Amino acid sequence: MEESPKVDMTLANTLAADIRLQVNTRRLQLGLSQVKLAEKAGVTENTIHNIERPHARTKKDGFPVLPSLMTLIAIGKVLGVDAADLLGPAVRYAIGEGQDIISHGDALLEES
Question: DSSP readout, 11-44?
């Protein structure tokens, strides 16, 4: 049986913090409430709340709650930025360190 790839918890925490900061900052700049952002992006208010909540964790393994790529794209469109802009410097760091974040995507990007 193949073992799941190990994901760096520090990277996952940093990625969650970067997304939280980018979404919250841009949302407030645009004067949007969490409810309004959720409506416009076609996601639940709980999704936005979990993205912006500092210590949201999955029940299964304690990983930070991270939005799916499709959720990031939808939120980015409403906020007027690319999904990549919402990921922040953690992704650039991971790539610079040679970590294969693509193959770890299932573990890193969990629908909230």
Answer: HHHHHHHHHHHHHHHHHHHTT--HHHHHHHHTS-
